[in-house]
Amino acid sequence: MFAEQNDTAAQADPKVRGPFPILSTPFTESGEVDYDVLAKQAKFVAWGGCPGMIWPQSGDSVDLLTMDEKKKGMEVLAETARSLPTSLCLGVQGKDTAEMLEFAEHAEKLAPEAIISRPPDSGKTEDDLRQYWNALAEVAKRPVILQTTGGVAYKGPLPSPQLMIDLAKEHPHFGYIKEEAGDVLGRMRASLAEMPPVRRVFSARGGLHWLKESDLGSEGVITERAAYADVLTQIWELQQSGEDSETLKDIFNKFIQMVKVKPGSLRGANLYIWKKRGVFKNLVSRNYGPGKSTPTTPKISELKLSDEQVAAAEKHFEALHPYLKEVTPDLS
């Protein structure tokens, strides 16, 4: 009986697979988090067909929002996701174990389908990471995706594939890996060779190498490209069917050209597309201070694109048009 339970526990959750785009944090003109637009964004991702979505996880949403803002955003998304077919994955990380656990305990109360966590800002050794994630394992009751890179304040080591494998062996709800560190292909091969206990490996890095990594065995992508949810879904479905390699290459190449449009930061042309698609109201962002420091009060700016940048965004978005869902979604 014990062996049977272990075999069952080692199986990957079918809901944690495929494109899980990270939501971009929307702001009002005054720089407050726009929770209504955050909810609309979740509905857009579900309309686009993605099996999952993640928030908060990108640097600005983790570093530049207050604890209360992140908790409220989690609550808004948990309530919104109850009526959606798309799985919600909440980000739980912190400068140290105590801060991470506060987010993890809050997330658990909201019962998302999954949790994701990056290394702690204060981590200095791999043992620090092991202790941090072991503490998370005591709180989390659902699949946990581990991100192999830290935030801008993290100066510790890359978590080794062996650490990921060890944690997967020790905790049946671990073994889901967002791989974007160092020798990504080599690390992926090492983790994929240990399935199970490794349950799922996701591509990342903006999706730029998704096709090559899927050939190795990655089973989805985690990237802040939710504005292209319908495109990500089609790429995933073509990967799974294996029936039309030429169309897959075409849509993927056009997607890559789109996300390379300058300014290429996630608060650059990406925001322009969010507004163009009727989800965001503006191009407002919060920003880091000098040297990627966290300002004591929010530092607000609105993106200004040159005519040339707008033309490039329009050109490459139009190239994607054959692969976009035509019907405007009802995001009310």
What is the CA–CA distance across the termini? 49 Å
Structural class: alpha/beta
Shape: globular
Give the H and E element order: HEHEHHEHEHEHEHEHEHHHEEH
Assembly category: single chain
The helix fraction, in percent, is: 40-55%
- Strand element count: 10
Mean pLDDT: 94
Beta-strand percent range: 5-15%
Major sheet details: 6 strands, parallel
Count of DSSP-assigned helices: 13
What gyration radius follows from the Cα positions, in whole Å?
19 Å
Question: Which regions contain 5 or more consecutive residues with pLDDT less than 50?
Answer: 1-8
* Order of the strands making up the biggest sheet: 2-3-4-5-6-7
What's the gist of this structure?
The protein is 43% helix and 11% strand. It is an alpha/beta fold and 332 residues long.
